[in-house]
Design brief:
With about 325 residues, the protein is α+β, with helices and mostly antiparallel strands. It has two domains: about 120 residues, Glutaredoxin (3-Layer(aba) Sandwich), CATH 3.40.30; about 170 residues, Jelly Rolls, CATH 2.60.120. Helix content is about 20%, strand content about 30%. Helix 2 packs parallel to helix 4. The longest helix has 21 residues. The chain is elongated and about 65 Å long. The C terminus is likely disordered.
């Protein structure tokens, strides 16, 4: 069957894991435009479906409200394209031309990636050290790069922006041992092990978790091995970076401890789960790396990814049909 009818959140999450690309058609039985565009969608699915690579699904939003809410569906029909479990693109409304354009582009990218052998990376070149939690996506693209601030960084290393670079970290391939005068794609602390990172966002986010990547490696010209972060304190909605003394006087929204077993051996990445209820309307984050997992005076961070949801969600009872009059 070309189109998979989704009957549970577990079934859909399983497809996000097993198929590189997933196209979801969120619809409702009472939605006229949904019925009008269905033959177009079914035709594309019949032509382009590929087992475990491109999967087309249909999700009844009235029956699967959890999924509709999780992905911010506000009207029917809404088509969402996922790549490697991350929300990639959305088409709202019954627009056959736009839908055809997006899906044909997707198929072209999939074919191209097969030919170049880059299936482990997304077509947009975004590296990810861990899979986002079910129902959430990587929203790091909402980071306002120009507004980043990082206190106590070693100026001979990378700048704050490298933490959000889309490329695979050089440390992953053992190339993160360059000399001090070369440009690094990671950051290290300077006078002690602490780092204070200010992250402003372009939109209001709901932040579910952080993925922090760190490789504890010595440089060719330095025998001291930097530490991975251990204690991390988080502050929300600050207008500027906090000073180290200032942070001691302000209660953190949450402080977490990353244990040695939390670090993935292959990707050097730890998932930091947050108390989601406290991170619902976040316009900025201050991430205070308080200490590391050893006795070194240096702490190293290679990448930071933000996992959650961008934008506010509406009450499912107030969903409107695009191009159709509201039902009773």
């Amino acid at each position: 069957m070309a189109v998979v009818k989704i009957s549970s959140a577990e079934q859909f999450n399983s497809l996000l894991t097993s198929s590189r690309f997933v196209v979801a058609d969120f619809y409702a039985d009472w939605c006229g435009p949904c019925k009008a565009i269905a033959p177009v969608y079914d035709s594309l699915a019949s032509q382009l479906s590929r087992p475990n690579h491109i999967t087309f699904t249909k999700i009844n939003g009235d029956e699967q409200q959890q999924l509709a809410q999780a992905y911010g569906v506000r009207a029917y029909p809404t088509f969402i394209v996922f790549e490697n479990g991350n929300k990639k693109q959305t088409v709202a409304g019954a627009d056959p031309r736009k839908l055809n354009e997006v899906i044909q582009t997707l198929a072209s990218e999939a074919t191209k990636s097969d030919a170049t052998g880059t299936a482990e990376s997304s077509s947009s070149g975004v590296w990810s050290g861990a899979t986002p939690a079910k129902g959430y996506s990587d929203v790091t693209d909402q980071v306002e790069i120009k507004g980043l601030e990082l206190l106590n960084r070693d100026t001979e290393r990378g700048e704050a922006r490298v933490l959000f670079d889309k490329s695979k970290p050089s440390g992953l391939s053992g190339k993160g041992k360059g000399k001090a005068e070369s440009k690094s794609d990671w950051v290290e602390s300077d006078t002690d092990e602490q780092l204070m990172l200010y992250i402003p966002f372009n939109a209001t986010l709901k932040v579910h978790s952080l993925h922090i990547t760190s490789f504890a490696e010595a440089d060719e010209d330095d025998d001291e091995v930097p530490m991975r972060p251990k204690t991390v304190s988080l502050y929300t909605n600050r207008s500027h970076v906090l000073g180290f003394d200032e942070a001691e006087d302000i209660p953190a929204v949450q402080t977490v401890e990353i244990k040695a077993e939390d670090w993935d051996a292959k990707t050097g990445t730890a998932k930091v789960d947050l108390r989601f209820v406290k991170f619902q309307n976040v316009t900025s984050l201050v991430v205070f790396f308080v200490d590391g997992d050893g006795d070194s005076e240096k702490l190293r961070v290679d990448r930071v990814r933000i996992i959650g949801d961008a934008g506010e969600k509406r009450d499912m009872g107030k969903l409107e049909k695009i191009g159709d009059e509201p039902g009773e």
